[in-house]
Amino acid sequence: MDKNIIPVGPYHPLLEEAEYFTLQVDGETVVDIDLEIGWMHRGHEFISESKTFTQSIYLVERICGICSTSHPIACVHAIEDVNKTEIPLRARYIRTFIGELERIHSHLLWLGLAGHFIGYDTLWMWAWKYREPVLQMFEIISGNRNHYGMMRVGGVAKDVDPEKVKSLLDIMDEIEKKIQMIAKAATDDPVLKSRLKGVGVLTKKDAIDFCAVGPTARASGVPIDVRKDEPTDAYDLVDFKIIVTENGDVFDKTVVRLLETFESIKICKQCLEKLRTVNGGIINNVKEISPGEGIGRYEAPRGEVFHYVRTDGTNRPVRHKVRAPSFVNIPTFKASCKGIPVADALITLAAVDPCYCCTERSLKIRNKNNEPYQLDLMKLSREKTEELRRQMK
Amino acid sequence: MHNYNEFISLMGNKIISKIEKPKRLYFEVENKNINEVAEYLFNKLGCRLSTATGTETYRGIEVLYHFSHDKTGEYYCLRVVMPDKKNPKMNSITPVVRGAEWIEREMAEMLGITFEGHPRPEPLLTGNHPQNIKVPLRKWRSNG
Amino acid sequence: MSWYNKRLAKSIWVFHMSASPCNNCDIEILDLLTPKYDVERFGIKLVGSVRHADVILLSGVINQKVAPQVKKIYEQAAKPCFVVGVGTCPASGCCFNASYNIVPKREDVIPIDLYIPGCPPKPEAMIEGVVKLMGVLNA
Description:
The complex is a heterotrimer of chains A (393), B (144) and C (139).
Chain A: E1 22-26, E2 29-34, H1 44-47, H2 53-61, H3 70-83, H4 89-118, H5 121-129, H6 132-142, E3 151-152, E4 155-156, H7 165-188, H8 190-196, H9 204-209, H10 214-218, H11 226-229, H12 250-277, E5 292-300, E6 303-311, E7 317-323, H13 325-329, H14 333-336, H15 345-351, E8 364-366, H16 377-392
Parallel strand pairs in A: 1-8
Antiparallel strand pairs in A: 1-2, 3-4, 5-6, 6-7
Helix pairs in contact in A: 2-3, 4-5, 4-12, 4-15, 7-12, 8-16
Chain B: H1 2-11, E1 17-21, E2 24-28, H2 34-44, E3 48-56, E4 61-69, E5 74-82, E6 89-91, H3 101-111, E7 114-116
Parallel strand pairs in B: 2-5, 6-7
Antiparallel strand pairs in B: 1-2, 3-4, 4-5
Chain C: H1 2-10, E1 13-18, H2 24-31, E2 45-46, E3 55-59, H3 67-76, E4 82-86, H4 88-92, E5 114-116, H5 123-138
Parallel strand pairs in C: 1-2, 1-3, 3-4, 4-5
Helix pairs in contact in C: 1-5
């Protein structure tokens, strides 16, 4: 008997014939949802016991390719928290700049994929086309488009040349104009609005109960953001605001992410201006870490990344615990997927922006009598959009 | 720091030992008091559970719950030590904090802890595993 | 079979299979379809089912839970089907060799014909890899 899979596709780095979520459907409506995970489990916590602190930074980068800077920043925060190490001012601006650039690229990536799931492939191509200059900026600063290896305990690894600041600012101005155009096109379209408004609502109480973080929680009215709650690096030296909306549906999550992109561009420009004038070194060489415990966190594009490190005086951690934001955001499906039509299931699952290497998934669809049967969620989602377009003409 | 003094005096002798640092409080309680302390932190103070860490130490199996007080950026880390390494058991806080369900399942399969009162004690990451791996984070498990 | 291989090289249909990756190589593969690199002008297309595919792009260090599925999918593919390992993970396991959960040798699960190293490999490197494959097929 075949258990059938559905949304596969580029976003899901998992293959067919694995088990995904189990959706219990009653006619057209989803009644319950369940998950099976474990296909990405590579045992990071086991491997990190045999690596030194600097090697852990490289290991932790490879947990996820999209949030590739968030994990190293949280890791160095945790190690520096053991002894409360200070880092130089220039390093603080560089860390904030790289972190915010990553937020821009990740939100554009999500926007493109959301468009792809609904059937707006043009939105996908445009969002990813204007993501390329961001990756080009990463290459100018660190030498690689992803997995930059810029973080060290006590500072950063590479400096930003003052001569390059002008060309980086020019690229930022250009991207800002284009993202404004894409954002306006996406939010003004009536078919897109009717697909996304009121779909997959997560109430404020559920968001607090499941301990959700990031844009998933902020779209439901919970105002938490590590950048304001515990400002580290340069977040207390730059001016920005956090975006909170009330409704908790997929449209609100889109709006939160788009407005956050503009705030990130603002922060990046401020950091670049400061990097022209602030002098100093980029790293405080740390000779040893005393025995103790440290907690470090960072606001990744998906939410709060949490690292905990326990040390014993040697150059290896005794225990290194990593918790990615998708681990707490994905269980909220149980609350937001109840009672929605099956054609909306795909966009609701994707709205949480799950980073599937930080967690896992697979899909089984069963009807009322618990027998499995086949459904193509991507096709259903696109068909619903076509139907709405026809009705609006 | 004054926030911690109020909390510490309220808990009284439930706290067996503590380590206080700026914005971080690590304190140990006994198994029988966990649910009460977790209920106070989650419902009265309005903390959010970030995650939980399980470790094997010389004293026994230790579980550390990390509660984040978002308004002030402080952490309350609740520690429980189980000296019985062959069969470690403790109360689950999932009935109080729904967000603890997944992390307790993960700690149960990685370290072999039994969480009493957990609604769904199934393995999270190594269920239906072809090699049937058991408790990979325990030191006595041989690697080859 | 060489006349068949020459036809194949004109328009390769690709199936993307990720077995425990960190997702970076997968996003870079998707980047190939976007306007800057645009491999569709070479006739290369991403398909949804392995039975339509000529080339399987494998990324990730295969973990033990997913290994039987990878094998099953490879067996379902219509032969001749070439397997290209994208990234350092299929080539050498990257930094995960010390883990308890990964297979000791990836070639035991699925035979790999071409390796494109890099973490992640740049899109230009992936295009070069595909061109080399087309060169081999044309010969």
